[in-house]
Design goal:
Helices cover 4% and strands 63% of the residues. It has five helices and 53 strands. The chain is globular. It starts with a helix and ends with a strand. The relative contact order is 0.10.
Length: 900
């Protein structure tokens, strides 16, 4: 199949090359100065279609590939210059045509031509004309984005541009479920999209845009077709089908409304075919658009999650999933100065996960295996998730803005997980059945209040505050044949070891800061920051044993119980100086911190107080308009929260017991990063590269004592530094208008230091991923995408490889039919070939929809080859793990969609 696809792509490419005539030249002004970013478009006078387009490079050069023996209207436009139209008649010989443009009295001249261009750039905004890249098979925003040069969409629905994640998605300038791009990527109809705007160096606050550094911020705005504005639009999809042995269904109504006054988005999805609009993993990483206030502060205090250890897997690693999902998003302009917006999301899912895994625990400073744990596990999960956000933005003038946001998260999760475990210790194998039960009902409320005020051209003030209130109550129960740990007060000799643990953690955290910006000159400013972070936490936990006669043995020894409170305070003063020097922008800074921490447990207080000066530096070299090099240096103090300080024992798992240490100190992180970006509109070439090195001194690490496969651990400040070096790079370009190719690479090397059985150990991991792909984008021919990915995970005891060639075919034909097929082949193995698995996935769909018809008929199939499982591996500093997950079986679904 792979050879056939390559041959087909080569044949199509050969035809295209054979039929083209080249037209090139230079565009300049009346003084013969070359003009960069000039739009050049060739319109076929007979068909009125745009056959080719180009944008001049920094030397004013353009190049077009045209049909022979054809008459063209060559349209040339550039903001600030008078547009030109020139008739070009091609033959079979290449043509050279230089053009001179004259200055225009109005900036609007040429705007209409720019609107027709497939790609255009104005300042920090890249604008894609969606229709120029659609072939007819697209059904949602994701399908369109994947065809745009320089834009990628990963498996989790995250959008990446220039190697940076898009953090905000808007439609007609209005937030679409703020803090997440997946819902928009998977649900916005492709036929409603007119333009895709990529907003680089994005800052939604215009008051701070020119004084803050926004080089890491990327947003995306979707412009709708005129027929979709001021009208309700969307679709209702219903489908039924069969799986391996049972009935399958899907119902997916979606409704949208956009007007200058307000917008409404409604999305629902009910199915048992594995479609998860929002996973538990998505839920916990959703911020609702909230960002850390003290990014310039030089210190971090992170509130860690006290989850019950419930698996957060994507739907491709589940045996069975049934989902009920509903979401609503709105935006309302009360008046010209005041906007209200918000969203609500409710999701309920039932998931079955089946896993076979092997965990090898390593000897200290060796690749030899000390002990092994083999598991065959089945987990039944129930998750009910809710998230609600309300935002208010009041901006009566360009000099004043007041924002308020509140985000509430509630959830209820349960997991029952029976497993069969085999342990191999000193060549002795022992097998037992273990049952575990987990549940949690966490709640969090996050509020933000911000005020921005421009006093004068030279004086800008910003006041921001955030409050987080969070409650977590994970419960854990394990029922084993063996007794894993000798706990104080534990009664041995029972037929089954039934152990339970309750935890309750409450967090109140307030971040506040005041920024003052003083404009020294048009190219320099001083930023003074006065801020404070205060956190108060409570941590309570207890254990108990259920005996064979069902009586309860409270394990209430002080070593098994936690009743801890912890206060953390960081008051800081920061100074940053930003200045431009030619093509360079420098922002050196320093912050002075006064830290104070007190924890109370076991009838005593322990207090730490100290001060620190923490430097940072940002330097940007703007090589060209669309080419830059950015260097970032930071020296930060990292603080743990209450979880690492509580000195009573806490179960992490049935074979892992940990306790904290109140004597822990902060870690210091030194980080250097370098980012390069280039976008060449002349040939739609995009290059991005990123390097990062971090060194963590006094890192909080783990001292573990292993008894077979059972681990007891305690944190400590390591005298040896952890180090991480990571890098990524990508190169992509479009050529001959209908072809797109890219190469990408990601590497990560890490050095970890811990203590294992009183021995200092160092472990390294080196992971690599390389991807190459090529695709066509014809409107009236079949389109192919071919690619290859290899992942290499090098751990202490083994090296794991995953080879993955993949292909996609989509074809719109007879003005009504759309056929899409995707194929992936996996070869997963290790160096010794003790693990050596091959599996593949094929999905396909055939859609019928007449032009202008509101009805769409679809026949689709997933996992058509009925693959049973997939593989994965991981590294945990003391062990390596390989896993095999059962996946969902073959589905055949017939669905009907009605377009509103």
């Amino acid at each position: 199949m792979k050879k056939l696809l390559i041959a087909a792509l080569f044949f199509i490419s050969s035809l295209s090359f054979a039929q083209n005539v080249k037209l090139d030249g230079v565009i300049s002004d009346t003084k013969n100065v070359a003009l960069e970013m000039v739009n050049v478009m060739a319109v076929n006078t007979a068909t009125k279609a745009m056959d080719s387009y180009a944008i001049t490079n920094d030397k004013g050069k353009y190049s077009l590939n045209l049909k022979p023996n054809t008459v063209y209207n060559l349209k040339i436009s550039f903001l600030g210059m008078q547009s030109k139209e020139i008739e070009i008649v091609t033959s079979t010989v290449a043509i050279n045509k230089n053009v001179s443009l004259e200055e225009s009295a109005t900036e609007l001249d040429g705007v209409e031509i720019i609107r027709e261009m497939p790609v255009s750039i104005k300042g920090d905004t890249i604008v894609y004309n969606a229709d120029s890249f659609k072939t007819g098979t697209e059904r949602k925003l994701e399908d369109v984005l994947k065809k745009l040069p320089g834009v990628e969409v990963n498996a989790d629905g995250e959008i990446e541009v220039e190697g940076k994640k898009v953090t905000k998605l808007m439609v007609e300038g209005k937030d679409f479920f703020d803090g997440d791009t997946k819902l928009g990527v998977k649900n916005i109809p492709a036929d409603a999209i007119d333009k895709v705007q990529v907003l680089r160096n994005f800052n939604e606050n215009s008051i701070l845009k020119n004084v803050e550094n926004n080089e890491e911020n990327v947003a995306m705005n979707i412009k709708l077709k005129s027929g979709k504005k001021n009208f309700w639009f969307g679709d209702v999809t219903g489908g039924i089908g069969v799986g391996h042995t049972d009935f399958r269904y899907v119902a997916n109504p979606k409704l949208f409304y956009y007007s200058p006054k307000y917008s409404i988005n409604l999305i629902t999805n009910f199915n048992n075919i594995g479609e998860l609009p929002l996973t538990v993993q998505d839920y916990f990483k959703l911020t609702g658009g909230f960002r850390g206030l003290n990014r310039k502060g030089g210190s971090t205090f992170s509130v860690s999650s006290n989850d019950a250890g419930i698996s957060l897997l994507r739907n491709d690693r589940a045996k069975e999933i049934e989902t009920k999902f509903g979401a609503a998003n709105f935006s309302y302009n009360v008046n010209k100065a005041w906007n209200l917006s918000g969203f609500g999301i409710m999701s309920s899912s039932i998931t079955d996960v089946e896993t076979i895994s092997q965990t090898n625990f390593l000897k200290p400073n060796s690749s030899e295996i000390q002990s092994t744990e083999n598991r065959k596990e089945t987990a039944h999960q129930k998750s009910d998730l809710g998230m609600f956000k309300l935002s208010s933005l009041y901006k009566p003038s360009t000099n004043f803005q007041l924002d308020y946001d509140i985000l509430t998260k509630i959830s209820k999760q349960e997991e029952e997980s029976p497993l069969l475990r085999e342990t191999i210790v000193n060549a002795v194998s022992t097998t037992e059945l273990i049952n575990t039960s987990k549940n949690q009902d966490p709640v969090s409320v996050n509020q933000n209040l911000s005020l921005f005020y421009t006093l004068s051209e030279k004086n800008i003030f910003a006041v921001e505050a955030q409050h987080l209130y969070q409650e977590e109550d994970p419960f854990y129960n394990a029922n084993l044949k063996s007794q894993p740990f000798k706990l104080v007060g534990y009664i041995p000799g029972q037929n089954r070891n039934d152990i339970s643990q309750n935890r309750f953690v409450k967090t109140n955290k307030i971040d506040a800061k005041i920024d003052y910006f003083y404009m020294l000159t048009a190219k320099s400013n001083i930023n003074i920051t006065l801020g404070n972070t205060y956190s108060y936490q409570n941590f309570n936990s207890n254990m108990y044993q259920i005996l064979d006669d069902k009586s309860v043995n409270e394990l209430n020894s002080p070593v098994n119980v936690n009743d801890v409170s912890y206060q953390f305070n960081d008051a800081f003063l920061g100074l940053h100086y930003k200045f431009l020097a030619g093509k360079f922008t420098f922002t050196p800074g320093v912050s002075f911190h006064s830290f104070n921490m007190t924890d109370t447990q076991r009838g005593s207080d322990y207090t730490q107080s100290f001060t620190r000066f923490l430097p940072d530096l940002l330097a940007i070299y703007q090589i060209k308009k669309a080419e830059s090099l950015t260097y970032n240096f930071s020296y930060t103090n990292n603080f743990t929260d209450i979880n690492q300080l509580a000195e009573g024992f806490v179960f992490s798992n049935y074979n892992s017991l940990r306790k904290g240490s109140r004597m822990l100190e902060n870690a210091t992180n030194i980080q250097h990063s370098l980012r390069y970006f280039k976008y060449n509109m002349f040939n739609l070439e995009n290059i991005s590269a990123f390097l990062n090195y971090s060194k963590r001194i006094d890192a909080i690490k783990t001292a573990a004592i292993f008894d077979g496969v059972n681990q007891t651990s305690e944190p400590f400040n390591s005298a040896f530094a952890d180090e991480t070096f990571s890098g990524s790079g990508s190169y992509g370009r479009s050529f001959l208008r209908n072809y797109k190719a890219s190469l990408s690479a990601n590497i990560n090397w890490s050095l970890f230091n811990n203590i294992q059985n009183t021995v200092n150990i160092s472990n390294e991991s080196f992971t690599q991923s390389y991807t190459m792909r090529a695709s066509t984008n014809y409107k009236n021919m079949p389109n192919l995408e071919l690619g290859y990915n290899i992942v290499i995970n090098n751990y202490a005891d083994n090296v794991f490889y995953t080879d993955k060639p993949f292909a996609k075919l989509d074809y719109y034909f007879l003005n009504a039919f759309s056929f899409v097929a995707e194929y992936e082949f996996y070869h997963y193995y290790n160096t010794e070939k003790t693990v050596n698995n091959e599996y593949d996935f094929l999905s396909a769909s055939l859609i019928y929809q007449k032009k202008d018809s509101k009805f769409e008929y679809k026949l689709s199939g997933t996992n058509l080859l009925n693959t049973k499982s997939i593989n994965d591996d991981s590294f945990s500093q003391f062990s390596t793990r390989t896993s095999q997950y059962t996946v969902q079986p073959r589905y055949l679904i017939f669905s009907l969609k009605y377009n509103i």
